[in-house]
Amino acid sequence: MTDKGILITFSGPSGSGKDTVLNELIKKRDDTKISISMTTREVREGEKDGVHYYFVDRDFFEKKISSDGMLEYAEYAGNLYGTPKEPVDEALKAGKVVILEIEVQGAEKIKQKYPDVVSVFLMPPSLRVLEERLRGRKTEDEETINHRLVIAREEIRKSSDYDYIVVNDTVENSVEKFSMIIDAERLKASRNKKIISEVINNV
Ligand code: 5GP
Questions:
Q1: Which range marks the domain in which residue 184 is found?
Q2: Which of 78, 108, 133, 148 could serve as a FRET partner for 122 with CA atoms 20 to 30 Å apart?
Q3: Which residues line ligand 1 (CB under 6 A)?
Q4: Nearest in space to 99 (alpha carbons), one of 26, 198, 197
């Protein structure tokens, strides 16, 4: 057991498959917890409030920011998205691996607040594949798809700042690689100072 939980930011362009990878990962690992974000964007078909997101209006979101209830937030494609603070702090205290599925600006803000955060970027095999996936899911109109593809190029440029890049060729491979990252992070000496003192003091 590491000294405390591990915070992970998980980013990648819209349509790169983050949700699918996370859904499979949590089936394999009960030490992980996915943070539920708050957003002002409209509910997509099949999404549930309190499961995929907390869907709120701008006014509610802004009040939450002013009462210091958000760990980070960002504007993305005209909507606000953010991470409620309290559940993340609690899960970290309980030793969990807490995963924030957030876009790059949010991940940068978290890095400033939590220097030992682990950042993972899910890379589509190509922009062509990304475009096919975005069109294939039929949840966005043409204008939104094009906007998301423009943002995607910018996000991919920034991926070199991340600790890990996972190319999402198949969901199975990506889940396996993500799980390996978590295992490696748990073994890091900097996260296991308690063990060192316990062994030295013969506890
Ligand atoms: P979508 O509308 O496709 O669900 O999400 C759009 C983008 O917002 C994705 O890149 C997603 O990772 C990001 N996002 C979701 N929740 C948060 C959050 O709490 N904070 C930030 N900064 N980005 C988020």
A1: 6-201
A2: 78
A3: 14, 37, 41, 72, 74, 76, 81-83, 101-103, 105-106
A4: 26
CA of 139 to the centre of ligand 1 (A): 15
Strand 38-39 vs strand 79-84: parallel, antiparallel, or unpaired? antiparallel
The pTM of the whole model exceeds 0.85: yes
Q: How far apart are CA 62 and CA 71, in angstroms?
A: 13
Atom of ligand 1 minimally distant from the CA of 109 = 22
- Does any domain span residue 1? no
Total number of domains constituting the chain:
1
Residue nearest (by alpha carbon) to ligand 1 atom 15:
102
For 129-186, the pLDDT digits (tens) are 999 999 998 888 899 999 999 999 999 999 999 999 999 999 999 999 999 999 999 9
User: Is residue 71 situated within a structural domain?
Assistant: yes
Relative to the CA of 79, which ligand 1 atom is closest? 2
Question: 29: domain CATH number?
Answer: 3.40.50.300
